Amino acid sequence: MNIVLRRPVVTIAAVLAVIAAFLGIRAAPAHAATNGFCVQANTYNQCLNDWNNGGPSNSSNIRLYPLNNPNENFAEQQLPGRCGGNVTRTCPFSNTYFDNYYYGWAIVQLKYGSTNYCLSTGSAADGTASTGVLGYCNGTASGSGGSIGTVFVDHNGYMINVYWTNQGQYGDNAACMEPEGGTGTSSFVYLDLPTGDGCALWSSD
Question: Which CATH number fits the domain that encloses residue 46?
Answer without folding.
Answer: 2.80.10
